[in-house]
Each structure stands twice: as C-alpha cells, then as structure tokens.
Amino acid sequence: xxxxxxxxxxxxxxxxxxxxxxxxxxxxxxxxxxxxxxxxxxxxxxxxxxxxxxxxxxxxxxxxxxxxxxxxxxxxxxxxxxxxxxxxxxxxxxxxxxxxxxxxxxxxxxxxxxxxxxxxxxxxxxxxxxxxxxxxxxxxxxxxxxxxxxxxxxxxxxxxxxxxxxxxxxxxxxxxxxxxxxxxxxxxxxxxxxxxxxxxxxxxxxxxxxxxxxxxxxxxxxxxxxxxxxxxxxxxxxxxxxxxxxxxxxxxxxxxxxxxxxxxxxxxxxxxxxxxxxxxxxxxxxxxxxxxxxxxxxxxxxxxxxxxxxxxxxxxxxxxxxxxxxxxxxxxxxxxxxxxxxxxxxxxxxxxxxxxxxxxxxxxxxxxxxxxxxxxxxxxxxxxxxxxxxxxxxxxxxxxxxxxxxxxxxxxxxxxxxxxxxxxxxxxxxxxxxxxxxxxxxxxxxxxxxxxxxx
Length: 455
Ligand SMILES: C[S@@+](CC[C@H](N)C(=O)[O-])C[C@H]1O[C@@H](n2cnc3c(N)ncnc32)[C@H](O)[C@@H]1O
Hints:
This protein is of the alpha/beta class. 33% of the residues lie in helices and 21% in strands.
C-alpha cells in the first residue's frame, strides 16, 4: 500500500524526517580530551561546526555551538548532526558524550532515582548489552563501585519495568555505554556516542614500544601552530603517529573515516544521515590522492619502526611520504624553507635511545618498564649515553635547523638542560596518566634565544 499523508507509515516516516532533517532537537554534548588539550579542542570543534555542521546539506544546517572548556574536556551544543560530525572529524576528542540528565544528589539512592527517571528506552533496547563508567571528583559517596552498580540497576530496572527484559552487561564490547560524572553534589548522566575511544582510528595496527596516542599527537600539532603547507619533520617518528595525523589533516582525510561508532547502535541512528556525512568524507579522501608534496617528513633509526610507519600510513590513506632510516644526530632539513620539527623523544621508562654510544657501541635494546608509571620515571636518573645523545641532538638542531621551531614531548623535565637548549615555552600534557612536557625551542641562526620560561 502506498502511504498516504494521513496514513501511519507516512506519519512515522515524516516524524523521522522532521526529527532528523527539518527541526533537529538540540542536545548538550561533552567531548573529553587529554588534559592540556582543551583549548585546541575548542578551536577544532568550532572549525567542525563551520565546515561540517553549518553547511551540512539536507539536515537543515544547524550549528555546533562550542561552550565552556573544563579540565579534561569541552562542552558544546547542537543537534544529532553536530554529535556525529564531532565523532567523525575530531582528532583531539577522546569521546563524544550526549548529556542525558543532570541533577543534585546526596547519596546513591538519589543517583538511582535520577537515573531511573530518564527515558533510556528512547535510546536503546533491552536486547542490547551495556556498561556503566563512573568518574567522581570530591564525591561523598562511600563506594564508587557500588554507585556504578546502582546506576546500572536503575537503567536495567527502568527497561525491565517497561518491557519485561533487562539488558545484559558486557564490559569488553558493549553496544551501549553510560557515563556518570559526580561532583560534590551534582550527578551528570551521559550516553556515549563514540564506542571505542576516538583515538583508535583503525589504521594503527603496527605499534612500537611507546606509541603516542593519536589524539595527543593531533592536539600537539595544533599547539605547535603547524598548518598544512608548513614543512613538518619528525626525526624519531616510530610508528608514524605525528606524520599520519599531520598528513591526514593536510589531505583532508577525516580521522574517523575507517572506523565504527557507538551512535550506529543507538535508536535515533539514521543511516541516511550518516551515509551523507560519511559519503562527503569519503569523497574528500578520494580527492586526497591527487594532492602532492605535502612537505611532511619522517625518519627513525630503526628500520623495523619505519616498516610499521609505512604500513600504518598506507592504512591511513597516505602514500609516498618520505621516510628515511637515520640517527637523529645526523638529521638535516629536507626543505629550504624552515618549518616545524616535532618529536616524542625516547625517554627513560618507555624506550631507550638507540644508536652509537660514546664509545661507538651500538645500543639496540629496548627497556620497557611498566607503562604510564610516571613516578618511577621521575625517580629514574638519565643514563650517561642518553645525555650524550641529547647533547648531540641539541647540537644538530642548533647547527642545522636555523629558523625552525622544534617541539619535544618528554616526561623528563631535565631534557632542555641535557640538550643544552633553553625552551621558549613548556606545556604540561598527559600521555595516558604519564605527566609530560611539550618543550618549544626557537632555533635562531647563530645564537639561541634565552627567554625566561613559565608554564
Ligand atoms: C617514543 S618513540 C616515538 C614514538 C612515535 N611518536 C610513535 O607514535 O610511534 C621513540 C622513537 O625514537 C627512535 N629512536 C631511538 N633512538 C634514536 C636515534 N638515535 N635516532 C633516531 N631515532 C631514534 C626509536 O626507534 C623510537 O621509534
């Protein structure tokens, strides 16, 4: 039967269309990110709003209005398209969370009640699996674990009361994730729309001993002020994270083009809308192949790492990027125009500096200690061969890279001293839980700037 304007099929279709294209509801969203990258994320979200939401064809345009930044994330407001576009295009956000409710609480029962009142049935069904994650700052609740269980019970009880069935819990690969954020007296409930964290782009299958998270790399690139067209060089590129993030940016390849998202499993998911946004991103990726000479270069002392970088770059849609096996102490610029050098230097607890030591011996061992153990590293003393390496690395920068800006990410505060360089700025960042600094060095021909520093 052909649906008529008064028929129910028509009405359902029209309501869906209206919901998604014509009169989109506005939601509050929160995009968490690595601490230290909130300001770059604000700038990125504003760009996504302008490029991918305001102009989104068919969806009535709409907007992504960037709100306040708080330690560890940025709030924004917008329709369903805004959330989907943020998932697909943000390089810096770790996730995109949809705010479901916020309310005062004094104890676990208040949190249960608040959760139970929400219309979870609008978002998913009891046949789907779920997990609950909870973060708290100065919360008076006695047990975070118990509170997490109460939230899970409230969601399950609500769905069971309505349909007779409860969702099962799957902590490894849930269909749906509920996030709870508690302050001293306020509880906020979010529904995750990302699924796997957004730094998992889908292209980095080959890793070294100490890879950098993709969203941290992307945020650092923004902090350096690098923009496509400016030469970029990573002389210790490892698995190629900086290179892939920069090259995808230069070629306009969306970071999320090769992965799935949590929103695809939620009830309001609209395949047509998603295909439209994804189709535009796929088109941009196809066009990327025609662009040449993006002036992004990498090298590493390890041939194995370069093989991994090549495989990763190819999966990320980047081909023919110049990579060279080279000791960073012998590096030279590959462009006449100065640019930006960015490096996640090998550091104590994660990977050892390799190359020839002072007596000419080759060091090839990696000494991985427990990942993310910042404290252990803070106590660790640099070994003399590492010092020798960083002195030579600093000399290479001073002598061969005049006019360049160099950025070194490290958890070793003494690195500038070891490099015999004075940093212009240092920015506190976190690689997972590992406390790091991003040191900036302005390399001036003939002499080094000696500016006072501040965090
Ligand atoms: C911390 S890892 C870099 C990780 C990289 N950013 C990534 O995301 O995979 C440090 C890299 O420095 C390289 N390396 C160590 N000693 C080196 C040297 N003397 N010259 C050039 N590269 C070196 C290692 O092979 C390793 O790939």
